[in-house]
Design brief:
Blueprint: H1 7-17, E1 21-25, H2 29-42, E2 46-50, H3 52-58, H4 60-73, E3 78-82, H5 88-96, E4 101-103, H6 111-127, E5 131-136, H7 148-154, H8 158-168, E6 172-175, H9 192-202, E7 206-208, H10 216-225, E8 227-232, H11 234-250, H12 257-279
The structure holds glyceraldehyde-3-phosphate, 1,3-dihydroxyacetonephosphate and zinc ion.
Length: 285
């Protein structure tokens, strides 16, 4: 039996049943444990994803090994996914490391180049049963001070998404629809009709990045419009720091890392639980 489920498998059911699977960024052991333990408690399928930053910090082999240990113990389906893979080589390295899903983020490239490399990643990944996420439109980072007008210009063009999906064969597509990475408050205004339009034209599971900054009501509308995978990182980071703050305030002399990180883990678990329930993927394992 395969250890990891693919995103394609998890997202197909989500699409059919109208919920979204949570994709949480994993950087160290405590974060991985917090995500998988909560998914287990909520009986939710779950995606753990490693970004370029995570791979630089922990090493791709460490991340794959830690997620494997956690997935072996889990009774819920777990996918190990590459988040924002920058190039073809990075994608192949993650396939080799055992990832069940990868992402080629060519959103900053001209469309033809994005299509060519995404197609190449799909050609390789699909041979070994690994699923592929592409990205269209550009999702800015919080702090870049992008105006509403600029944000709208960066959104995914529906006609291009149709062409991209047809020409590449990607299994899912991340789209820029007013979402912004790394927002600490939930104030992003997303273009739900655009999601609906892209869903109609592509008919594949759509992915919403930067979801920490999106109000709960908009998240629910986005799921109804066709979003099947939702990425969360910043809310976990906030919970981690909150946990450490609580424990050090209670006991400023605490020096046991297990007690400090243990509290961080408790807070992260509650953040993950809130999102799993919001996305409606609890009891869907
Ligand atoms: O989408 C980006 C994620 O929040 C990962 O960020 O590269 O700092 O790990 P990172
Ligand atoms: P946030 O950090 O805004 O939650 O976004 C996460 C993300 O999109 C990872 O790819
Ligand atoms: Zn992202």
């Amino acid at each position: 039996m395969k250890l990891f489920a693919t995103n394609a498998f998890l997202l197909q059911r989500a699409k059919e049943e109208g919920y979204a699977v949570g994709a949480f960024n994993a950087n160290n052991m405590e974060i991985i444990q917090a995500i998988i333990e909560t998914a287990e408690e909520e009986k939710a399928p779950v995606i753990l994803q490693a970004s370029q930053g995570a791979i630089q910090y922990a090493g791709v082999d460490y991340i794959a090994a830690m997620v494997k240990v956690a997935a072996e113990r889990a009774t819920v389906p777990v996918s190990l996914h590459l988040d924002h893979g920058t190039d073809f080589e990075q994608n192949v390295k993650c396939i080799r490391a055992g990832f069940s899903s990868v992402m080629f983020d060519g959103s900053k490239l001209p469309l033809p180049e994005n299509i060519t490399i995404a197609r190449k990643v799909c050609d390789v990944a699909h041979i070994v049963g690994v699923s592929v996420e592409g990205e269209l439109g550009q999702i800015p980072k919080s702090g870049e001070n992008v105006t509403r007008e600029q944000l709208e210009k960066l959104m995914a063009n529906p006609q291009e998404t149709e062409e991209f999906v047809k020409k590449t064969g990607v299994d899912s597509l991340a789209i820029a629809v007013g979402n912004v990475h790394g927002m600490k408050t939930r104030e992003a205004q997303i273009d739900v009709p655009r999601i609906k339009k892209i869903q109609k034209l592509t008919n594949i599971p759509l992915v919403l990045h930067g979801a920490s900054g999106i109000p709960d009501e908009s998240v629910k509308q986005a799921i109804k419009a066709g979003i099947c995978k939702i990425n969360i990182d910043t809310e976990i980071r906030k919970a981690f720091v909150r946990g450490i703050g609580i424990i050090l305030k209670e006991n400023p002399n605490e020096i046991d890392p297990r007690k400090i990180l243990g509290k961080a883990k408790t807070e992260m678990k509650e953040a993950v639980r809130e999102k799993i329930r919001l996305f409606g993927c609890n009891n869907k394992a």
